[in-house]
Amino acid sequence: MQEFATRESFRSRQVAAATAPHISLRLSEANDKVAFMNTAPNPNKALWEKGDFTRIADTMRESGEALVQRLGITKGLKVLDLGCGDGTTAFPEAKLGADVLGIDIARNLVDAGNRRAQEHGLTNLKFHEGDASNLEQVPDNSFDLVVSIFGAMFAPKPFDVAKEMVRVTRPGGWIVMGNWIPNDPTLVAQILKISSNYTPPPPEGFVSPMTWGVESNVIERFAAAGVPKDDISFGRDTFTFNFPGEPSAYVDVFRIYYGPTMNAFEAAEKQGRAAELQKELEELFNRQNTIQNGTSIPATFLRVTVNRK
Fold first, then answer.
1. Could you report how far apart the first and last alpha carbons of the chain are, in Å?
2. Rounded to two decimals, what is the model's pTM?
3. Which of 6, 41, 120, 299 would disulfide-bridge 186, Cβ 3.0–4.6 Å?
4. Strand locations in 232-282 (E)
5. 3-state secondary structure of 32
C-alpha cells in the first residue's frame, strides 16, 4: 500500500504559522468554544446510537493504527477526527503526540471514547458530539489535519460535509478520508448491499453514503468547497477486520450491535426472511475469511487526500 500523501512537514508549517495570523484551537478551550450539535433532528444519530458500534470497532483497531502510522503525524499536530466513533484512529493519532479532537454524531460513542482516553491517560485527546455536515462553531482554519475514516461519509448533506472539512483545515494542512466503495466485492460494501435488499426504500432525497466512494463525486464535492481537482488524490487501500471467533459468530456481532444490519434484521423479521438474511451474511463472511482459526477479512476502500492551499 502506498503511503498517504501529505503537505510540507509540520515543522515547516510551524515556521509559516509563526509569521502569519492564525487561529489555534486548544483542547482545553473546546468545551467553551465549540458547540457541536445541530438543533434539527438527524436520523443519522439514531442509526449510530443503535446497538453498540464499539463491538465492531474492537475488530478494527489493528488496521486503524496501521493507517494512522502513514498519515505523517508529528507531536503537536492539531488533528480533527470526524465521525470518529470511540477512537479507532483518534487513539493512535494521540499516541503519536498530536492534539486530537474527535467529533461523532453518536453520544454513546463519544462517551465511550472519553472513557477510553481517561483510562489511557491521554490528556491530548477529547471527544465531542457533533454533526459532520454542520460544525458551525468550530473556528475556521483550526486544524493541520482532518481525518475521517468511514465516518463523515455517513453524514447527510455531502456537499456541506466537504465544505466544513475544508473550512476547518488550515492552509498548508490536509484532509484524509477513507470511504467504502459502491458495488465493491469486499466485505463492507457487500454487507450494506445485502442489507439494503431487506430494508424499505430510503426517503426521497436520500444520498447514499456509498457515493463518497466514487472519485468523480469526491472531486465535485470538494470543488464546490473551493478545492481544485489537482489538489485531490486517490488510492485504493485495505482495512482488515479481525475477530477471534468463527465467521458465523462475527455475523452475530453485526446483527446485534451494528445499526445498519440491526435495521436489516428487524425488517427481514417482519417479512419472515431473517433466516435468509443470516444465511446470506454467513456465506459472505465465510467466503471472504482468510484464516482457519478465527476471522480475518480484508475490505477495500477509497483513500482520499485533499491538500488545502
1. 26
2. 0.86
3. 299
4. 232-243
5. helix
